[in-house]
Amino acid sequence: MSYAVKEIFKTLQGEGAQAGRPAVFCRFAGCNLACDFCDTDFTGGDSFATAAALADAIEQVWQGAREHGFVVLTGGEPLLQVDAALIEQLHGRGFEIAIETNGMFDAPAGIDWLCVSPKSIDGLKLQRGDELKLVYPQDDVPPEAFAHLPFRRFSLQPMDGPALADNTARAIAYCLAHPQWQLSLQTHKYLGIR
Ligand code: SF4
Description:
This protein is an alpha/beta fold. The protein has helices spanning 51-62, 84-92, 164-177, 187-191; strands at residues 3-12, 22-28, 46-48, 70-74, 96-101, 113-116, 129-136, 151-158, 181-183.
């Protein structure tokens, strides 16, 4: 299959459990949802004919020590396109692979850090993983709906936008009252990096 990719760039992971870690971000084009709080442009970009071609492009952007290679597959919704062939090609180039997904599609085996960021309760297919990162608050998608699921880390991330300050205060209060959850800040926005 071919892969539609909006952009590939190297930066520091800004949010969640891996915040601060150098990574190549591969942002896939397209999403199955249209959240009104979405802060990501995932339209347009390039097409890669094969998994090997896309993995080559990611490797070119990394240009760092191979043993620390880290790629974050994101979107849009990456699981509309990520498949076993791409996982194999990236692992073959020494990359540790993280993915950030809304959790509504099955994931191929072998992903090293599976981060699910639910946008609804009903459609959630991926009910286990490494990190559950919830944008907060979302109507009808409360943290309590996910607290019982087998994830290693629970991150609560204030929703960006005009109410960010209020949302941050609410997220802090929630974490303090429910210490299973850790605050996730979008540090790249504070730092002015991508
Ligand atoms: S699931 Fe994520 S990428 Fe897709 S529209 Fe919602 S916030 Fe944007």
